[in-house]
Design a protein that fits this description.
By secondary structure, this protein is α+β, with helices and mostly antiparallel strands. It is about 25% helix and about 25% strand. The chain is built from 19 helices and 40 strands. The two termini are about 75 Å apart.
């Protein structure tokens, strides 16, 4: 949200600088994300002065140039060469002196230097309006009225006032601050001063020649509807002051009527809508729902199909506007409009939010209605807008204000105790200070006792309904920085169940990050097309869009979307991980499953001149999986190949019926669905299962072995279906005490081997913790291993 410093000062008198106000707003909960100096025209007319042409003669060396003498009030005339056809002696003009930077409408800014033009010295420039950003004309120089004083700054003459724009990160609960009035209200409370509402006392009905009947059929979706008509208006460009106000906060001026509605919206926080009264059939306005599927063309020239739940502003025969969201193409103000119907309403926030989401429309009006506007300000805003329209567009107010308000909004009744406030804040604050803050915020004290207050909170403070909300209001105005941090911190011992989930997750996250993996956080909401078990999908009752209508059943699909997003931005080499949950509806029960996803794709390392660059493979992923399992201290698990709908190929590690992790290559179908043709490898860890396995770990302290280990290698032929894990299992069953490690260091399959065979080269690490192994002992063990490999794996030792 953007707020103008000068506009803010129309509500509250303060000598605080923009920088000081920026700090105050942040401290009271309206975080200022940026502060920017804004000028009505580029350059702000800095360095330009008002002068008088006292002499104008023909240039001796150029037919189209004149040599002038200009008095700029310094006591010394400036000689300036000018090419404008309308320059003449006696004129009051705008002069850019030497050293001034000029910002034209077109082209780059340029600095005025002392120079010679066709042999004649020129010490400045007499300006045309397009050369300094004050207009579009380049027919000649600007000629000012004869009574204009010379020597004054052009910035002062044209009343160019610099402004500052605050960019406020407004949180969803602060609907009351979504305007200059709302910000001024909070600022006044902090400064313990008053704020000034716009004066609407001049409002009066000029005649009743344009009456439009209003009917509200759905008072729940539209609790209040106020309106008035204005006839005889002239639609044209807004005056400069109005355009400048809107430009500062980033609003593009359109015409005087629309600009006034935008002005009041950002001034008071009340959205307005102006209809062309001559386009309202039957001189009737009906607030109602239309039948399901009714076509409606909005201002952006898009035909939309209405829902039966959409609240519409209709004439006697057709819909004209989506209430609180967007106007219709054929009922808005145009250059031909002479009579207008002005609407100021209070719409139900839930109804507006659903309609806005349903049609994918986000506007300044819906932004405020969704969060909750002030139901008590509709008539004030209507009067303010009507008076401004008369000022900038002429016309007459041609009806009394119609205000349909069957059930006036009541303030929130909140009981609070001083003891409860102080307990939450953690610091004694005088009762008188608490009361003063609440009164300054516009909260009425209905009753008071020694222990607390009975309060009536205005309806525009939609988030203040409980004592804890009152505490927050007090604290942010009192000042978070004023809360003293105690020198003594009390703490109590707390029992934490083993294993500590957070510590273990951080342990694995740190390890993966240290090995070049990036942590990602994907949305738990995803599209139903990703659900491989639709009957178990957890549906969203009120989805934001069709792409976010179910809870994810797997971490893979959202991660693949992240992969595609990065690949499309030339970041194809990825190593990622995510801790998250999957969601399932099984036999009527909602189930959350903690998971860990590890993913690799693209090149296994960045391109280097001294290293071979190759694509990531299954074994790069397997190394990461083994590192995680090892870091968790999990041993004694089995592995087997898997082939199901989730993997093109892969392995799983398991203990009994408990699968610890499944990992392998993503299927072509999953990759196509996400939109990537690159191979992706991923591991899906059952994080709850891993934590359960860690819980059963036993810590055993052992001395570092005193005796050396030895290594023996074996090369053998085996059937292709024989796996390394089978060979490793045979070895450990043969000798459990001495064999410490079995590794494969070469696998070969080729035409030089018998059909159906492959070659394995294994190394065996042997060690006795009580003595040094002799060759005889080592050979005996190796012979047993060879015998069992031949017998159980049909191996041929090479």
């Amino acid at each position: 949200m953007k707020i103008s410093y000068n506009w803010l000062k129309q509500f509250i008198q303060t000598d605080k600088t923009p920088q000081e106000i920026s700090l105050i707003l942040t401290n009271i909960g309206l975080e200022v994300e940026s502060l920017e100096k804004v000028q009505p025209v580029l350059g702000g007319l800095e360095g330009l002065v008002i002068g008088q042409v006292v002499e104008c003669v023909q240039h001796p060396n150029a037919d189209r140039l004149r040599v002038t003498k200009v008095d700029v009030g310094t006591g010394e005339w400036l000689q300036i060469v000018c090419g404008a056809p309308n320059v003449a002696a006696g004129q009051k003009v705008v002069v850019a002196t030497v050293g001034t930077t000029v910002y034209p409408n077109e082209g780059e800014p340029f600095k005025i230097n002392k120079s010679k033009i066709r042999g004649e010295e020129s010490a400045g420039m007499i300006c045309a309006e397009d050369e300094i950003g004050l207009g579009a004309s380049h027919a000649g120089i600007m000629v000012l009225p004869e009574d204009t004083a010379i020597g004054i700054a052009a910035k002062s003459y044209f009343k160019m006032e610099d402004d500052f724009m605050f960019e406020i990160g407004l949180t969803p609960n602060r609907a009351d601050a979504a305007s200059h009035l709302g910000v001024a209200r909070d600022l006044a409370a902090y400064l313990r001063t008053s704020y000034q509402m716009p004066d609407v006392s001049a409002f009066k009905t000029d005649n009743e020649s344009l009456k439009i009947e209003v009917t509200v059929e759905d008072t729940e979706a539209c609790p209040r509807y106020s309106s008035v008509t204005i006839s005889g208006v002239t639609v044209k460009a807004s005056p400069d002051w109005l355009k400048d106000k809107l430009k500062v906060i980033g609003i593009r001026p359109i015409n005087n009527i629309v600009d006034v509605t935008n002005y009041v919206l950002h001034e008071l926080g009340q959205p307005l809508h102006a209809f062309d009264a001559d386009q309202i059939d039957g001189k009737q306005v009906i607030v109602k729902q239309c039948p399901e599927g009714t076509p409606f063309v909005t201002l952006d020239d898009v035909e939309r199909k209405l829902s039966a739940e959409d609240l519409m502003i209709c004439s006697a025969t057709k819909p004209m506007c989506i209430a609180g969201v967007f106007g219709g193409k054929n009922s808005g103000v145009s250059e031909q409009t002479t009579n207008i119907f002005l609407e100021s309403a209070y719409f139900n926030s839930v109804s507006v939010r659903k309609t806005s989401k349903r049609h994918g429309l986000k506007t300044d009006a819906s932004f405020r209605f969704e969060r909750g506007t002030d139901p008590e300000i509709t008539v004030t805003a209507l009067k303010r807008a009507a008076l401004l329209i008369k000022e900038v567009a002429g016309g007459e107010i041609s009806s009394a204000i119609a205000d349909i308000y069957p059930a006036p909004a009541q303030p929130f009744d909140v009981e609070m105790t001083y003891e409860g406030i102080i307990a939450l804040i953690g610091q004694d604050i005088p009762n008188t200070e608490i009361k003063a803050i609440l009164v300054a915020l516009g909260i009425t004290v209905a009753a008071e006792t020694e222990k607390g207050l009975s309060l009536k909170v205005p309806a525009y403070k939609v988030d203040v309904t409980r004592e804890c909300d009152i505490t927050e209001e007090v604290l942010r105005i009192y000042g978070y920085d004023n809360i003293v941090i105690p020198t003594k911190v009390n703490a109590s011992l707390a029992y934490t169940a083993k294993p500590n989930k957070e510590n273990i997750q951080n342990l694995i996250a740190d390890m993966l990050t240290a090995n070049g993996f990036l942590e990602i956080w994907c949305n738990s909401l995803t599209r139903s097309a990703f659900s491989k078990k639709p009957e178990e999908a957890v549906q969203i009752l009120n989805p934001l869009s069709s792409d976010l209508n179910v809870m994810r059943q797997s971490l893979l699909q959202p991660a693949l979307e992240s992969v595609v997003y990065n690949q499309n931005r030339r970041n194809a080499d990825l190593k990622c991980y995510e801790f998250g949950k999957t969601y399932h509806l099984i036999h009527g029960e909602y189930i959350e499953r903690p998971r860990l996803l590890v993913l690799v794709t693209g090149s296994k390392q960045s391109e280097q001149w001294n290293q071979n660059d190759g694509p990531s493979t299954f074994y790069n992923l397997k190394a990461a999986v083994d590192a995680i399992i090892g870091r968790l201290g999990i041993a004694n698990f089995q592995s087997e190949e898997i082939s199901d709908e989730n993997f093109a190929y892969g392995l799983k590690y398991f203990r009994g019926a408990q699968t610890l992790v499944s990992f392998g290559a993503a299927t072509l179908a999953d990759r196509k669905q996400a939109g990537t043709d690159k191979e992706v490898f991923y591991a899906d860890f059952d994080w709850a299962g891993l934590l359960d396995a860690v819980r059963k770990n036993k810590i055993i302290n052992k001395e570092v072995p005193k005796y050396p280990s030895v290594r023996r290698d074996l090369s053998m032929l085996v059937d292709k279906k024989v796996t390394f894990d089978e060979l490793k299992t045979i070895a450990f069953k043969t000798e459990k005490k001495l064999i410490k490690q079995v590794q494969v260091f070469d696998v070969y399959e080729g035409d030089k081997l018998p059909e159906g065979k492959k070659s394995y080269a294994l190394n065996f690490t042997l060690q006795d913790e009580e003595q040094t192994l002799t060759d005889k002992q080592i050979d005996a063990v190796m012979q047993k291993i060879i015998a069992n490999l031949v017998q159980n794996a049909k191996a041929e030792i090479r």
